[in-house]
Amino acid sequence: GAGVSQSPRYKVAKRGQDVALRCDPISGHVSLFWYQQALGQGPEFLTYFQNEAQLDKSGLPSDRFFAERPEGSVSTLKIQRTQQEDSAVYLCASSLARGTQGQPQHFGDGTRLSIL
Amino acid sequence: AQSVAQPEDQVNVAEGNPLTVKCTYSVSGNPYLFWYVQYPNRGLQFLLKYITGDNLVKGSYGFEAEFNKSQTSFHLKKPSALVSDSALYFCAVRDMSYGGSQGNLIFGKGTKLSVKP
User: Fold this and answer.
1) Is A56 in Cβ contact with B101 (below 8 Å)?
2) Among A33, A45, A101, B47, which is disulfide-ready with B35 (CB 3.0 to 4.6 Å)?
3) Residue from B44, B49, B89 whose CB has the most chain A CBs within 10 Å, to mutate
4) Do residues A78 and A59 touch, judged by C-beta distance below 8 A?
5) Residue of B nearest to A42 (CA)
6) What pLDDT, on a 0 to 100 scale, did the predictor assign at position A23?
7) Percentage of residues in chain B with pLDDT exceeding 90?
8) Which of B95, B62, B65 lies closest to B80 in space, CA to CA?
9) With contact defined as beta carbons under 8 Å apart, do A47 and A33 qualify?
10) Taking CB atoms and an 8 Å limit, are B102 and A107 in contact across chains?
11) Per CATH, the architecture of B3-116 is what?
């Protein structure tokens, strides 16, 4: 597709359940970022992939969060044993070049996660 | 610590008037600066960036931003606001911190722009 695609758009889960969020970046984009956006806040960095390599996961809030991009295209963010504080919009972004080269990041519409 | 500040939660402007959305930053070294816009229930759309060169950067939809190194500011401007410009605007800077930065962005908390007819 023309842009970054995320699915599902909305996800409701009960506390303690596991969830998986998918990101389809723009074809050919090397860099892929995940961000978490709490209500009324700016996005906060979670993790970064360059192709299939996860080069930075310093923003993941706990070991319940796990991300992968096994073939260097589609990425999945998994949250295990969800907690209410995990409720947020999860944004995926991709860019053509390596992240340090200052290329703009192109964002998907996000997945709004609500934990009951 | 690196950071971005957007001092105004909301900016109200009449249609046809000029608008300014303020942003200041704190980074080590030369900054890479970005503006994004977010419409309800949508992701962020790239407006413009400053990497190097002219201090006045022109972007999408008639927006521009002025980089001011001495004031560490990167204010977003538009000469004549449209009602359709009403949205949430985010300023961001590339994370330059050692030991983990791979180009991720540090965002401000956002400024809601409201343009009235």
Assistant:
1) yes
2) B47
3) B44
4) no
5) B109
6) 98
7) 77
8) B62
9) yes
10) no
11) Sandwich (2.60)
